[in-house]
Amino acid sequence: MVAASSRPIAGARPSECPLCDEWYTQLRTQADKEGIDSRQVIAVSLDDFRRHLGEHLEQIALFTIPPNLDAQSISGFNEHNSHMSGNVVGLP
Ligand SMILES: [Zn+2]
User: Fold this and answer.
1) 18 C-alpha vs ligand 1 centroid, how far in Å?
2) Cα 47 → chain centroid
3) Ligand 1 centroid to 51 CA: how many Å?
4) Which residues of 8-21 are buried (b: 16+ CB within 10 A; e: fewer)?
5) Sequence-ordered list of residues with C-beta below 8 angstroms from that of 53, at least 6 positions apart, any chain
6) Model pTM?
7) Cα separation of 64 and 69, whole Å?
């Protein structure tokens, strides 16, 4: 009667990921390799689902960061460098 409660499959399906199909494919392949019934793996915990979505969001965030930050640190490094070499060259 309460057999369903023994399986902690209250979660999400990898195939529901709106941003890729790879996760689902990957989990199925892995399950096949390990001889696990793939129907068990097709459901993941909500934590796993959130973490997976988080990885997508992280990639998107990194992709959308303007390159200004890099340019600043690089020009700062160059400035520091030229200042140092300028000092050395400027000595009589
Ligand atoms: Zn995904």
Assistant:
1) 7
2) 14
3) 10
4) eeeebebeebeeee
5) 17, 19
6) 0.55
7) 12
The CA 67 to ligand 1 mean position distance, Å, reads 25
What's the pLDDT band for 64 if we cut at 50, 70, 90?
A: confident
Angle among Cα 8, 14, 19 to the nearest 5 degrees reads: 145
Residues with CB under 5 Å of ion ligand 1 are 17, 19-20, 23
Q: Can you tell me the distance from the alpha carbon of 68 to that of 81, in angstroms, rounded to the nearest whole number? A: 20
The pLDDT tens digits of the residues spanning 22-57 come to 999 999 898 889 998 766 667 888 999 999 999 999
Ligand 1 centroid to residue 52 C-alpha, Å: 6
Predicted pLDDT of residue 78: 57
Beta strands in the chain (DSSP E): 11-12, 44-45
